[in-house]
Structure formats: structure tokens, C-alpha cells
Design a protein that fits this description.
There is one protein chain. This protein has about 130 residues and is mostly helical. The chain has two domains: about 80 residues, Orthogonal Bundle (434 Repressor (Amino-terminal Domain)), CATH 1.10.260.40; about 50 residues, no CATH class. Helix content is about 65%, strand content about 5%. It has eight helices and two strands, in the order αααααααββα. Strand 1 and strand 2 form a beta hairpin. Helix 2 packs across helix 3. The radius of gyration is 18 Å and the shape is elongated.
């Protein structure tokens, strides 16, 4: 079983929402969502302990029978190799929903990122 599936299963068996679990361990619901979707390649030791406590299981029970190699492979498959590859996808996942990207959407994203990169470059030049 993948860790993401175990977290989700235990959370649901406790009747907790992602937001409620997040509050119990001082994490946002987005972090919990990323863990449950396998978007986070690793979870640190303190978070594992906090998760286990919040879900009323031991850390060893939480990690028992977990296939970590499978989790890592899934994360790598979801990450695009580069920005252009990402922008050439017709669908993307955003905030838990699948969105179709038109050419206009892709160009808007390119323009926004170009602006952000330019702004960061300008800011970094001022620091030197």
C-alpha cells in the first residue's frame, strides 16, 4: 500500500476532513491533500509522528507495509520534465480539479511566469 492511501484511509476512518487533520498537526489542508495525492515525495519524521498521534496509531503502524519505492515513482511521473512540457499539456490539475488549458491559457501562464522571472532577476541584481 502507498503511504498516501494509508493516510487518506486512516483520516477517513477517523471521520476527519483534510482541514481538521491539518489543524491537529499544524499543517494546512493543502499539505494534507498533497500527501494524500502523492505530490510530496517525502514526509519528515516529525510529521510522521504527528500524523500517527492525530490518527491514533503508532508511527510504525502508519509506516507498516508501505511501498516507498512506488510512492517516489508516482511523484516523479507527475512532475513534468520542464515548463514547456507542462504548458503543452491539454489538461492540468489545479487545486484538486482537472482543468483544460486553451492556447490562450497557456500563453497567459507563460506571460505571467516571464513577468515573475524578470521581477526576480531584477530584484536579485539589486542585492549585488
Amino acid at each position: 500500500m502507498a503511504l498516501k492511501d494509508k493516510i487518506k484511509s486512516l483520516r477517513k476512518s477517523k471521520g476527519l476532513t483534510q482541514s481538521q487533520l491539518g489543524k491537529l498537526i499544524n499543517k494546512s489542508s493543502q499539505v494534507i491533500s498533497n500527501w494524500e495525492r502523492g505530490y510530496t515525495s517525502s514526509i519528515n519524521q516529525d510529521d510522521i509522528k504527528n500524523l500517527a498521534n492525530a490518527l491514533s496509531v503508532s508511527a510504525s503502524d502508519l509506516l507498516e507495509d508501505i511501498d516507498f519505492t512506488n510512492d517516489k515513482k508516482e511523484v516523479e511521473e507527475k512532475k513534468p520534465a520542464d515548463l514547456e512540457k507542462f504548458l503543452n499539456q491539454s489538461e492540468i490539475m489545479f487545486d484538486g480539479e482537472v482543468m483544460k488549458l486553451s492556447e490562450e491559457n497557456r500563453q497567459e501562464i507563460r506571460d505571467a511566469l516571464e513577468f515573475i522571472f524578470y521581477k526576480a532577476k531584477k530584484k536579485n541584481k539589486r542585492k549585488k
